[in-house]
């Protein structure tokens, strides 16, 4: 069994330096094919090198090559420490390779062992120099861990989730952000702007789970315990924000798979922009995303809204682009609620010209002709609110005969420029049509246009998330009234009383 043999090796190496060569027996099992052998070897390495680090028996400083030690003027003590430090580096290399092992248990054990070494190197530094009493953080070792967490050709999301407990340390989180930034620069530079789906997804899984502190006084948990912490750059929130900002900008400047675009945009307004020193640096990414079209453009609205309203971003042709997003899919995509919430905010200004608002009303009404009932119950009050905010558009409602006065509808649906769509010359015959909708709630909602609108806006917040299943549940829970019926029971195959078939085929 590997367990007892490894325990004997461990005892021999730690008790007598004359047995130092037996460390190779432990390292050899790290590369074993058997899962249990690799697990035992990882645990043994953790105990062995943890003890050596605490005892100061690993060489500290700039490590010379092993062949140079033979020719150099080193004492027996120094030769031992240099030799054992090289074995420690071999162990770290083997453990980093095991982070891509087929067995998750082996991956997890290797990760925990490497992070234990990070913790111990923070307590017992292998770097000789210090600055103003600041202990050096084992950045190089942490880079090895980070590179193992974001492989290029496989999904590492499960291992990344296991790593989250270490990200609670403020200094670990800071140096992880620095290491990720460096990795992205090296990896993405080589592939010349081609997407790397696995790698980029792994990077996103790692960095999207980062919980940034809100205030400097919240930063109290450090793996490296510093006596002179106020002099340490890592203890400052500004430094964390700079590292966070640079990491995301480096990640987002490369082409992303479309699915990843959506994931980034979903969290952008809550988890990224508030923690950047200069959120306006995201303008390029957001404008590119906004120009892609479809759901990606809808999701980019959140970030643009924040930059426009909170950071004075000027976006030429913003409303033209927003108008172009109105296509049949807006009533069906899962981000419908978010889009209409933002569209409601963008169209709330009383300074918008009537032709622009009228164009939005007409396009929404035209698309409503093919929309599902749950979307119609939201968009009709939405349109009514636009009339309340912009009374000049009520001309669309008050053409008594509607399109009967016109040879055809002058509104040009295909026109991309709202000012040239001729919406104000049209009427709202689409909503008039919806008054005959098969769903009674929709017909009733559309009938409000036959009355004078109140000045108080409808609250549509509860309608934005309305789904077809909720509408169905509401209908089947309605109490049905008993309706008296009078009918003559059918007899016979063809329903006639005295036909010959009725004698033989009676319906009971």
What would a concise description of this structure say?
This protein has 508 residues and is mainly α. The protein is built from 22 helices and no strands.
Tell me what you see in this structure.
- With 508 residues, this protein is mainly α.
- The protein has 3 domains: 1-129, no CATH class; 131-255, no CATH class; 316-481.
- Helix content is 54%, strand content 0%.
- It has 22 helices and no strands.
- The termini are far apart.
- The model has no long low-confidence stretch (mean pLDDT 85).
Q: Which of globular, elongated, flat, extended, rod-shaped describes the shape? A: elongated
Structural class: mainly alpha
The fraction of residues in strands falls at: under 5%
Give the ordered list of helices and strands. Answer: HHHHHHHHHHHHHHHHHHHHHH
Unreliable segments of 5+ consecutive residues: none
The helix count comes to 22
Radius of gyration: 35 Å
Mean pLDDT: 85
Please supply descriptive tags for the structure shown above:
508 residues; mainly alpha; 3 domains; elongated
